[in-house]
## 1
Amino acid sequence: MILGPVGDRTGWMVEGAVALFLVVFPLLLGLFGAGTDLGTRILILGLFGLGVDLIFGFTGLLSFGQAAFYGTGGFVTANLLIRHIVPNTLGALAIGTLVAALAGALVGSLALRQVGIYFAMLTLAFGQLFYFLENSPLRAFTGSENGLPGVPKPSFAFGPWTLDGSSSIGMYVFVAAIYFGGFFIARRIVRSPFGAVLRAIRENPERASAVGHQIARYKLVAFTLAAAYGGLAGGLLGIFQGYMPPEAFSIDQSGEIIVMTVIGGPGTLIGPLVGAGVWTLLRQGLQNVDAIAGVWKLILGLVFILLITGFRRGLAGGAIALWVRVRPAR
Amino acid sequence: MPGLPVHLIEAQLLNGVALGSILALVALGLTIIFGLLGFVNFAHGGLFAVGAYAGWLAYTRYDSFVLGIVAAIAVTFVVGIVIERLLIRLYYRRPKEDQILVTFGLGIVLVEIVRALFTGQNKLVPTPSWASGAVQIADLVYPQYRLDVVGIVAITLIVVWAIIFKTRLGLIVRAGIDDALIVEMLGIDIGRAFMLVFALGACVAGLAGFVDAPILALTPDVGTAVLVQSLVVIVIGGVGSFGGAIVGGIVAGEIISLTSVFAPDWAQVALYIAMALVLLVRPQGLLGVVGRA
Amino acid sequence: MSLNRDRFLRTTAGAVAGLAAGAADLQAASAADSVFLGLCCPLTGSYGADGEDLRKGYLLAIKDLNAGTGVMGQIPSLRGKKGVLGKQIEYKVADTETNPNTAVQHATEFITQNKAIMVTGGVASSEVIAMAKVAQQQKVLFMTGASGSNDTTGIDCQRYSFRSQCDAYMVAKAIAPILGKALGTKRKAVYLTPDYSYGHSLTGSMREFTEKLGWTTVADVVAPFPSPGDFSSYLTNIANSGADTFVNIEFGNDGVASTKQAAQFGILPKMKLVVPNVSTYFPDGVGAELMAGVYGTQEWYFSLADRYPLSKRFLDDFEKMYPGVVPRWTAHIAYSQLAIWADAVTRAKTFNAPAVIATLEAGKPLTLMLGPVHYRAGDHQLVRPVPVVIGKSAAQMKNKADFFQVVDIVPGEDVMQPLATTSCTMPPV
């Protein structure tokens, strides 16, 4: 019921376009003098954002605490790999994602008792709670302000070929494959009846409820899924950097992913990826120009405000709307 | 710690009140806007930073603490007016999430402007000479300046209360909240009233920024921490209630002070647990009114 | 299924193209007449001022290495040569924001994108420890910036990382006897400790050596790190502790804020202040009035120019390059680390990391700004003297940076932590 129709013609075109983009991305980056690693970083944020888009773009829930799950998944995965409790990379990632999802279910069951501003503030409170728990009482597992260095790189054998995670391109392929998987699933979710109810909740919760849907349950499932995406992305961050940073839990991280989703376009799934790309590349690019190095965040902040005020659909959303308008009618 | 002296608890209780009054002052600006306009202002931290730096500039250039206060209030008042006219008034009827988002973005912009003008290095704001030194209260020693801040907070609260409940402006705004249509039909410019209230909230945030500056290490990022803290205070005390800002501030101050005695690791965690509990059990806060948000 | 095959071919094509581009890059790097150094300095954040000083030291060192001038030109193995092994040094400075995550990102970028032959920097031990681990993983040399935690050459020691600052153990062992003689052996001390590895390290070592003298530790008040900026709750505890000596372990801006607030709380001058490790701009922020008569240590201090000819040379060259700026000890660390590295590379006759590591571990002394120094193989801690200082009163200051008088220069060999107790197990090369 959650996963929707497979094998519908328009569906394949979107997945295909995304797959093509993932293949071409490193080359595009190279053209602009950026490394493949930057692309990997953008994909990880895009994956994190898939979850955020599910709850914000599709269900209308604004959460300022998503970093809690990004961090949780990241540190669980990192710990499992560093301490050799689960030496298998995919296994550690799966467990990290699961723990993050459980955390999401727990936080969601409490936070979703409220709506609107109170919900936003509750998520902020929980996000901060996770941050301070990570920083002090749980420091044995998180290395506190040091973070957790020494996360091993994965390596996968496919018959005669080996995908080596310690090379930039190898890591990119690994992360891109997981991003694609995450995107595929997210697409199925939003195009399913479940996704339709989420959209109904965003439009008009009272009506959705009146029609007979148990909106509390839908919201909780969506919130848990978002936490899972966050946890998976966090796990990948630790593996990619070989180091799991405590900032993954910070409120700045929670704020950033929201800004990226809004800039890219909420409700489009690829919005967060676009937003992450714009944010990361602008940051990188501007920092190299001495004159305006310090103001990259100011520029992005202004862009963010402009988009919310006048162009609510964001960059990707606007592009999609334009494409829908100009394509020939079927 | 070996054997807790009784007067340590007393000292921490006093510290909690002083700390709490600072927190209350900082949260007051947020509560004014939230309480009167029903508008969530996530740019509050940014306004705090703007006020702190404006005050610092005046204070260090003219060697006058009072001039610093005036500068902090004046600059943030103007910034508040500009923001309200350009941006905020487009959002009164938009969903709360959009209000949060746009002011969040605004907060980032303000902090970055401050950073661009003043760099990220710490600025040290010295305590004014008439308020430095410590004061003896029974067998407790406490910094003079922090006690003076309690006085400043009290004065600010009285002034703000007078503006809102004893002036025509306040009357218009309070009426406008209850029924904007009727107020407009009476020929009163509700838009101007809203603008002034927003600017009032902004300049109280700016005042708090400068008053708090001698105590903190001043950097542009001080705004984010302050925003989060202010949210905690108004949630605990009650959104939209002045009494709530004070009560919330003092409760938060006491939580931090007392936990630091027994379990310093958990001081911040305790604060957020309290915030979450209040939101779950009594979302309007200790002194808040239901239906405000 | 046709779609899967399509995608697979495209992915492979993309991977091959990427690899080809990467390989071309590598060839370009080794053919050049230069080598790349990655400099990671916190230019913003809590330790921004120290990071700026660190940066200045690096730039002077690289200038001297490339031109064969200054202190570098006085080193026997480098005398008469320009560059290192004939190659000029290219570099880039990245702002770590006093944040281990940012530091790690920059260090990794320097290694993977810029093909750095060595990475150096960091001021907070958390940044340094994180970067050292990256360097170990990537098998690239890392010369630490400032790092005072015992863990950097203790439990977190790395084969590819070398630390020159005197660690907490050395500082405490050097200063304790002097404190005992000057302040007496029956004191009651209260500590303000930042809650991270460096803080606990220094407090632990200070307690070990002062308690051996006869001091009592009344309380260890731990404040969160990063600090909230407002130390009132912690200072209230300290003010009411009944101690007569306040040992402030806080560093950088936190050190300044907490000391000033302590004065506001009446803790100073009622209690005697001890600052075991004085951060670079601490006295400027706190003021001579509070610093007078305060005992502490400084990794290096400019008045040592009177005692060591190379210190004088360093001081003069620095003031020539940066008129009006007096170098602090972070600049000294930057310069000496690059000097030690360049000397080892030259004697090893290669940039290859394992060979340079072996040369460093062989421990042949090199005379620098504090006399002969050498690295100890077991934990990669530099064996070097510890300058103990006392704060001057405003009247005694000869210029606006002359905060200290050097009381003693304690030889390194006397205060090194016994290897067995460091918890360091060196990974293989």
## 2
Amino acid sequence: MKVTVLFFASLREQLGSPREELELPASVATVGALRDHLRARGGAWDSVFAPNKPVRAAVNQDMVQPAAAIKNGDEVAFFPPVTGG
Amino acid sequence: MKIAIQREDFDLGAETRAISKNPKIGAVASFVGLVRDVRMSLEHYPGMTESALRKIVDEAASRWQVMDCTVIHRYGDLEPNDQIVMVAVASAHRGDAFQACEFIMDYLKTQAPFWKKEHRAGGATWVEARASDDEAADRWK
């Protein structure tokens, strides 16, 4: 399964990357699993996606909970809690 | 209904006049958010920002009588006292206009993908989300 992953704001800066195309194993089928998958890279990834960090996610530009499913071709975004207005 | 994400400033008077032309409209409530104290830059998620704001406006229109509405949010570099955001809601009566306007702002604060970075003498820091904003949005549930 192939997805596009986007990072915004402090996450983008800490990870040094705004986006990547990612080939995922079949076991990574939810947003929460993808977060764990990325965290396992270690270093900055481990600290950005640590369980105590308030990371929000969107699938295809819709804000979702960690249990949300992801499928081939999805755009998945990770970002900190929003601070507009 | 107009939703705009832009670098440029906006003119609240012109925007409210633009949604006041229908003779059935008896009230326009508006809100303007300004930059307080420090220089900042605003980042957003192009595409999602527009659809998130559209959903918030649609939700407001399902709860109150919203005859027209304009939401403009700026991004990029902003100076103290610059305008950041405006919401204007036109309705037959003030109650609907006031409530829909406040609802849209409260939801925008927690649902629209914008992030502020403050630039101070000591360096730049990302603004942390506030629990009080979540509480303000929760009031409408």
